Structure to design on (228 residues):
């Protein structure tokens, strides 16, 4: 005969649950014993354990208690899962705060580095001009203001040709269009002396070095300029 563990746990064992489920399906004790390949005596021992754990007498009461216990167990599982999810969300929130703090610090460092770079260029009496692929001025440093006699707000948004004599301006746009179309460039990274045009119409000689920069998926040209 199969030995039965007489433990006093309130939660039913898998076999005990199986017996109650089969009884709820309408099977008799004899049919349940045959289905589970146990004796009726062993089945009675299981029933006694079930009644003791569920504190019920009729089969209906036992089935109702089993459903309630399962529901309570599932509720506890859901509560545990909810608590775990809450803990994970708290971890994610802390991680997000750390990332935001680090990004803020990176932004401050970049701004500081940019300010130091610009200050260095100003000390060197160098002008920095940023130009879009369409030839429109995007940035105009204080050094560039001194060289060309324009304020930044007067030229930003205008064609770079405003800083060149007419003939040279036309050639410049041809060079830019050719570079955008073919990728070839004769002056990128190479310094040379060119004629520039100040705001008062005076033509001056400047030494210029042009770099190509990719930012936010768009190409632009940065020119570093100083009096020749």
């Amino acid at each position: 005969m199969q030995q039965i563990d007489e433990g006093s746990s309130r939660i039913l064992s898998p076999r005990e649950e199986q017996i109650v489920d089969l009884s709820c399906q309408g099977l008799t004790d004899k049919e349940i014993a045959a289905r589970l390949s146990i004796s009726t005596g062993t089945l009675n021992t299981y029933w006694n354990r079930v009644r003791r754990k569920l504190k019920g007498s009729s089969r209906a009461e036992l089935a109702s208690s089993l459903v309630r216990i399962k529901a309570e167990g599932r509720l506890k599982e859901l509560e545990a899962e909810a608590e775990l999810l809450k803990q994970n969300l708290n971890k994610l929130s802390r991680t997000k705060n750390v990332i935001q703090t680090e990004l803020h610090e990176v932004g401050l460092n970049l701004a500081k580095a940019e300010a130091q770079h610009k200050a260095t260029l100003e000390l060197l009496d160098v002008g920095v001009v940023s130009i879009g692929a369409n030839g429109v001025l995007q940035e105009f440093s204080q050094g560039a203001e001194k060289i060309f006699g324009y304020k930044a707000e007067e030229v930003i948004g205008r064609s770079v040709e405003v800083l060149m004599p007419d003939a040279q301006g036309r050639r410049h746009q041809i060079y830019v269009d050719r570079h955008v179309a073919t990728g070839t460039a004769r002056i990128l990274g190479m310094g040379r002396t060119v004629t520039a045009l100040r705001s008062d119409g005076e033509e001056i000689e400047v030494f210029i070095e042009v770099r190509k920069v990719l930012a936010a998926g768009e190409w632009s040209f940065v020119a570093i300029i100083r009096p020749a």
Remarks:
- The radius of gyration is 42 Å.
- The domain at 124-227 is CATH 3.30.450.20 (Beta-Lactamase).
- The chain has two domains: 14-73, 124-227.
